[in-house]
Structures are given as C-alpha cells and as structure tokens.
Design a protein that fits this description.
single chain, Arginase, Chain A, eight-stranded parallel sheet, 10 helices, Ureohydrolase_dom_sf, Histone deacetylase, His_deacetylse_dom_sf
C-alpha cells in the first residue's frame, strides 16, 4: 500500500498573509482523494519527532530556540517565516513523517511525505523556508538504528540542497546528489558529493538527458540501501523563481525515470515534495499529484 504522510497542520501553520505557499499541502491530498488515486487508508498523520532524534542532525541550542520561540529577528528573516509554536510543531511532524515513511518504504517499496524537502536547514540554523532538515534527520535515524548503511539523497529541486550537502560533507555513508539551477538560490553553494548545475533556460530534453547521464551510473556506484528523493516542481517553465524551461510532462518524465530506476534495483524510496512556486496553484498541485500517481503506478501499490 502507498503510504503518505499528511496532517491538516501542514496547510495552516502561518498567519493569514503568509498562507499561499502552504495551500498546496491541503489541495494535493484533496485532489488525489477526489480522483480515486488514493483513499483515506493511504494517508497517515505523523507523530512529533522527539528531541533525541532531531539532535542526531541539529544543534541543541538551535532546537531550543525553536521550542522556546527565541529566534532573533534576523534568524526569522533568513528562514522567511515568522516563528510560532504551531510552525515548530509542523516542522517536527514533517521530520517524523519522513522517518515513518522510511519504515513504510522498506515494506512497500515507496512512501511519500506531502510536505518536507527542507534541504536548506543547516546544523545550527534554518534558511529558505526550511527550519529542520527532514531528509537529513531521517537519514541519520536510519544510520543510528542500523536500518541502512548506505544512503543516496537525490535532490532534484531547482535550488541546491545546501544544508543537506553541508550536513553530510564528512559522512561517507550518505551520498548527496543535487541537480539544480547554477544561477539560482542559494547564491553561495555548498559542495554535494555530486552537483549538476543547470543553466538558465534549460529545457525538458536537456534536463532529462543530463539526469539520464548521471542517475543510473550513480545508483550502480553508490549501491544504496535506501534512497531519499526530493521531487521539487520548481523546475517547471511556469515557476516564478526556477529559471528553467521544463514542461509539466517533462517533470513527470523525471519522476518516472527516478522511480523506475529505484524500483528496478529494489531500492526503497522515500519522497519529500520540495518546492513549487508557479503563480497558478493548480499547476503546482497537478505537477505534485503526478509524482504520487507515478509512484503508485510504478510500484503497483
């Protein structure tokens, strides 16, 4: 069965004026339920990640600031969200949702978090709408509990996973692969194990060719026990910030390529949604829904 982490708090953690970026987290499950791709049995509400698990990845003093609502104004500006207790709970739920997805993926082949992909969060700080790095937290959880020895993170958001790259720069058990816009945020890049930089205006054909050149070889080289996939849809030609020219069909082909390779190699896949900033929320929602549809079809669950 395809298991999907979701809770209504994903959609409404912010004051009214800040809610548009969160709207997709409510619309995606509604659409998937409406069309019959999933039923309510596919959805599960995550618990809240405990401090000990979060501290495998993040700094104690930073986590305490989140708990006590004592981030400075500057720290809040860099993150991009005003702090609130509900937002901290949301981040802890997202992290735990990705952890729980690991167990479901090992059982069913794939599992998905409607939120997550918070790859700009560092050891001791957040930035770029990311406060806690859900995939890094889950990867360290797997290593700590000896549920995996070799992990591959496939980050195909248009923005480099700088926080993830920095967190694992000295960890040979986790291989970080980021394919992202060269001239896009973050403007100071970190060094992933493999970075593929895309020029502004990269089209669908070029994008898919570059991914096809790298991913099969990478999977054979790393031979991961599990893979995390960050499936941002900010690569779309309609995205306000992406600067690429990938069509919705090309974005779906990307997902199919990733899922097919992982399924063929019997590698459990944990998916976090990542970014998407097209002006029309229906375009964002449909592109994300395609990721869920592709996963369900390829694993036939």
């Amino acid at each position: 069965m395809l298991k999907i982490a979701f809770d209504p708090i994903y959609a409404h953690p912010l004051p009214e004026g800040h809610r548009f970026p969160m709207l997709k987290y409510e619309l995606i499950p509604e659409q998937l339920l409406f069309e019959g791709t999933i039923t309510s049995d596919n959805l599960f509400k995550p618990n809240i990640a405990d401090d000990a698990t979060v501290l495998l990845t993040h700094d104690y003093h930073y986590l305490q600031k989140l708990h006590t609502q004592t981030l400075s104004e500057r720290e809040q500006r860099v993150i991009g969200f005003p702090q609130s207790p509900q937002l901290t709970i949301r981040e802890l739920m997202i992290a735990q949702g990705t952890i729980q997805c690991c167990h479901y993926a090992m059982k069913f082949g794939v599992a998905m978090n409607i939120a997550g992909g918070t790859h700009h969060a560092f050891f001791d700080r957040g930035e770029g709408f990311c406060m806690l790095n859900d995939q890094a937290i889950a990867a360290n959880y797997l290593l700590k509990n000896k549920l995996a020895q070799r992990i591959l993170i496939i980050d195909l958001d248009v923005h480099q996973g700088n926080g993830t790259a920095k967190l694992f720069e000295d960890n040979s058990n986790v291989f970080t692969f980021s394919m992202h816009g060269k001239n896009n945020y973050p403007f100071r890049k970190e060094k992933s194990d493999l970075d593929v930089e895309l020029l502004d205006g990269t089209d669908t054909e070029t994008y898919l060719q570059l991914l096809q050149q790298q991913l099969p070889t990478l999977i054979n080289k790393v031979q991961p026990d599990v893979a995390f996939y960050l499936s941002g849809v900010d690569i779309l030609d309609t995205d306000k910030f992406g600067k690429l020219k990938v069509t919705p069909q090309g974005c779906l082909q990307r997902d199919v390529m990733v899922f097919t390779l992982l399924q063929q190699h019997h590698i459990p896949c944990i998916v976090s949604m990542g970014g998407g900033y097209s002006a029309d929320v229906k375009i964002i929602m449909e592109a994300h829904c395609n990721t869920f549809r592709a996963a369900k079809n390829i694993w036939n669950i």
